[in-house]
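User: I'm putting together notes for a lab meeting next week and I want to include a structural view of one of the chains we've been expressing. I don't have a solved structure, so I'd like a prediction I can at least talk through. The sequence is below, exactly as it appears in our construct file.
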Amino acid sequence: MSRSGYFSIGGSEELIKYGDTLYGLHNGLLSPENAEEAMFVAELNSDEAATLDAVKLWKKFLIAITKSNSFYSLSPSKKAAF
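Assistant: Thanks for the context. Below is the predicted structure for the 82-residue chain, given as structure tokens.
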């Protein structure tokens, strides 16, 4: 992830360190254990703009893993004849 160019070194290190926790909180597999985790869950489920860095990073991660890497061409592909 740190070599993808999509995340800063600090952001990728945070995802490596806290990614499992953020995933669990996002999917409801983990319950918040402190005020910071409760704020993360509340802000993640809010429609308002994110203010917590962890929420911004997690939303950026979700976009990165769900975006399509498809390439569309206007020219038809040619099939190889065997």
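A couple of points you could mention at the meeting. The two ends are 40 Å apart (CA to CA). Residues 9-27 form the longest helix (19 residues).

User: Perfect, that's what I needed.
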